[in-house]
Design a protein that fits this description.
This protein is of the alpha+beta class. Helices cover about 30% and strands about 25% of the residues. The protein is built from 5 helices and 11 strands; from the N terminus they run αββαβαββββαββαββ.
Amino acid sequence: MAIKKRIRLKKSIQKNMVFLFWTTLFTSCLIFSCFQISSWMRDNHEIKKINEDLHDEIEVVQNVEEGDLVDENIEPSDYWYYIGIPFYEVSFQELSQKNSDTVAFIHMENTNINYPVVQSKDNDYYLHHAFDHSKNEAGWVFLDYRNSLTELDDNTIIYGHGRLDQTVFGSLKNVLTERWQQNRDNYFIWISTPTENMVFQIFSIYTISKESYYISTHFSSNQEKQSWLDTMKGRNISPIDVPVSLENHILTLSTCQNNNGGRIVVQAKLIKKQAR
């Protein structure tokens, strides 16, 4: 009888240990998840607050002066439509006082993209820091460290996290919707720098697995660039159908689509600029 009692006691202890293990594991996972959600919400709130404060202090204005059309592929029948597109600009003196890494301002219609653009010595810093340099996993909107907006490269890239609350580049996913694509006035990206205002026209919208080809910045030959342009335009899943040529300077917006490395990509060509 004593042996049976010891066996039952041993089994009971084992069951309690298993129960304790799973209870501890579940509790730990729950606490970790709550911490992660809390951190995610805090980061999003801080990014929203920083951007709202910036817009309270720095006015984004429309400049309706005509500027110069620089794209030779614009149809004559569309000339006045493009001439009538305004520019957007801000005071860079104020922005630079707040963050000396500021290089541009970006605006897109029917998205929440209305941000100062920063640039660091690498493409890592602003993945984890906000505009005010505070540690923040929501990051900020930033220019590829290889690019310059003073002299445009073949391809200029701007990145931002695809946050679920639509901060940073989270609202870039709007371009994938039929409603957004049906409005022709959405097909533009406005970039303003301390020396120039620019308008880019979107020619390709697509999603893709993580790769480095679409974020090439320079090409060694016209043949290499043409092949790249053909590939980028061939990926387009939207009804936008505009020509793109070797003479065009390209702007690429890139954000994460999912946790598996997917990307949402928007590519546009420079069509109009204005010296400031």
